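ERR on first pass: missing label on line 2. Operator R.T. fixed the label and resubmitted. Corrected input:
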Amino acid sequence: MTEIITANRPDAEADPPPIRLIATLALAGLISGVAIVGIFEATFETIAVNKARELRAAVFKVLPGVSQMQELTYADEQLVPVTEGMSSENSIYAGYDKELNFVGYAIPGEGPGFQDTIKLLYGYIPADRKVMGMEVLESRETPGLGDKIYKDDVFVGSFRDLPIDPIIEVVKKGRGGKDNQVDAITGATISSRAVVRIINENNAKWLDNLPSPGSEPGLRVETNEVVHD
Amino acid sequence: MIESENQDYNELIKGIWRDNPVFVQVLGMCPMLAVTNSAINAIAMGMATLFVLVGSSFLVATFKKWIPKQIRISCFIIIIATFVTVADYTLLALIPTVHKELGAFIPLIVANCMILGRQEAFASKNTVRLAVMDALGMSAGFVFALFTLGAVREILGSGSLFGVDLFGGAFEPWIIMILPPGGFLTLGLILFFFNWVTHRREIFLERVAEAERSGS
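pass 2 clean. output:
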């Protein structure tokens, strides 16, 4: 490769004092830091809005017929709406229809997949004890194989109207037939099992503690107005 | 004036074919192989790299007199890392779906040796104008290479291009093409083709020169 050198850079230059090297690097670091904080501040709001919108879209997808939602968490052994200042870890979402009647819960869950953690959200209707939909939020499964857990309509569709009792099972394609069984994706058995395991684990964690059907917390009016698409 | 325009043009054009960063210099292989399983990912990665390379080359060429040579590499890396962070957050805010697909590979642009290589080999020794020309040319060559690989792999591996189905179900996709081995296979074949073309061209030029000599 031939490079054209137009600037003069005499190599015989004496070494600059160390303080100058330190000062240059410190200055570079300072400018860089300011630039990074600047871009973080500038994009922070958009990113937060994007994330909230994504979550909202996912909740509406896994709970058909829902038009309002609110975040719920446990405080003093009771399921209460998350208000500002409360930690939003370990929370679930409640979905309500147009007349503000409770429809079901959207429960987030995560667990190890084939390559990395799979994060998903699934809708659960306590009155029917059925899973109503599943949406993968984050995953790095193998493209073409493992990523069918969210690209394969048949697999995703098998989580619609899926009874959870006694437990959801994964079976090889065509071997099942019972209502609580899900066909594994050919070539992606580990990813398929991971999805079902995450749902079963979260069912075990949440279902016994949920209020009995009919006594779910109602929609708080304030949260009603937070986001309107 | 004409001289300098010619030089601008040369610096711009050399990265696309003659000194193509991927096919000739074989640099930046990590992002090259990792994200080229679809054409759109390849283009997004190429654009992010273009932004980082042009920005870094501009700054390095501007500040080259104030950067002592003992710490030049650290300074280059600080500049590159800052641009990468800016690109990362901008993508996350503006096109979150693409950011989701590229995932960990955006921060890894810092480690793309093509970018550091251009700072050390070119931007730190040339005028701002030439450095930007060089960066644009090299990035264009990188985008071209990524797109070629991404398009081939997506067509063969998913039967589609830019997500549009090409064969209407009449084609069984070769899943291996969108997995890592497919990247190596495609890259190997393209490198082979590139070298073959260059070789044929040399032979052709030699023959022309010979014919001219015997003719005169």
